[in-house]
Amino acid sequence: NTVQSITDTNVLEGDSMDQDVESPVAIHQPKLPKQARDDLPRHISRDRTKRKIQRYVRKDGKCNVHHGNVRETYRYLTDIFTTLVDLKWRFNLLIFVMVYTVTWLFFGMIWWLIAYIRGDMDHIEDPSWTPCVTNLNGFVSAFLFSIETETTIGYGYRVITDKCPEGIILLLIQSVLGSIVNAFMVGCMFVKISQPKKRAETLVFSTHAVISMRDGKLCLMFRVGDLRNSHIVEASIRAKLIKSKQTSEGEFIPLNQTDINVGYYTGDDRLFLVSPLIISHEINQQSPFWEISKAQLPKEELEIVVILEGMVEATGMTCQARSSYITSEILWGYRFTPVLTLEDGFYEVDYNSFHETYETSTPSLSAKELAELASRAELPLSWSVSSKLNQHAELETEEEEKNLEEQTERNGDVANLENESKV
Prior knowledge:
Membrane topology: Multi-pass membrane protein
Pfam family, one: IRK
CATH architecture of one domain: Sandwich
Main location: membrane
Strand content: 15-25%
Family: Belongs to the inward rectifier-type potassium channel (TC 1.A.2.1) family. KCNJ6 subfamily.
Mean pLDDT: 80
Structural class: alpha+beta
GO molecular function: G-protein activated inward rectifier potassium channel activity
CATH superfamily of one domain: G protein-activated inward rectifier potassium channel 1
CATH topology of one domain: Immunoglobulin-like
């Protein structure tokens, strides 16, 4: 055994040496982004195990995309105002305090240098000496005078004199720069406070999307609502299908975006969002769900991103709310529970039932197969495909019952003939 293990070790070493000799240059495969590697089609992906679908947009509306290897960071400084507004509150408040503190210290140092160079520090107790700033006897008093000048407090204890031209020039510069700093920082804080992001949190989407029949057509539906009494003006809804695809030329497009029509041509995408509304997408030949059936839906790797936009009535600022649905959140053969009831003189919305659904009779075929079935049967357009399928099922059961009766009659005749022959 020892000899055999040594021999196997030598063989492995020889194979590795042969590999090193034959391939002295390592061939590196092109490095794809992580999302592209995860979304490779099944026929070119090496990992065929079932994996969890990675969201492009989370349920709370935040985009699940991180920007890496951004080398041109100077572009953020060119738009410093937007950069400060996009920062988190803790960093924004820290920068707010630091900017004012640094400017006060900077100009306080200059005021102290002017007093030190002119010799005001050496003639503090000399009543015949006219200093640049009265009652300025050190750096702390210079710092306090800088704060009083920039914030225009003016306590009256420390005052600049007319015998100091350099102090007058510095006073003008600090007043102008102080006004600019105030306008910039206060404007930044005002914009950050008035952002409509919190308003978007009161716009809710149903946790699931459903697919069922509506007016004889297969439709994809989801529900939206507004929790506030102040309405969203000019509200509009959009939907996108996020799904990787491969072109006929072999090009792989990760996370390809396709429009989902939710009433753009009929005006149904423009909402009067006073009470919860059910947004419907008719699955027709232009729909990306045209060939998807109930059995095929769980196998698809797709995501539906819905976007609700409008202006806040109180501020007039544009507000946007987002959400998404993956295949596990799309229920086939369900409808939404009604939430609007008529009370004594008003309508009441029950948001406890906002996300609830109930099962309904829905064919499991795709919209394409239903259209082909309707065309072969030459059904009128006003007929419901689902009702026709139920009629076919009833006819089949009746035929089976007739066949059973005929078979029993034949069996009875055969039994009678056998009895007569025995007799």
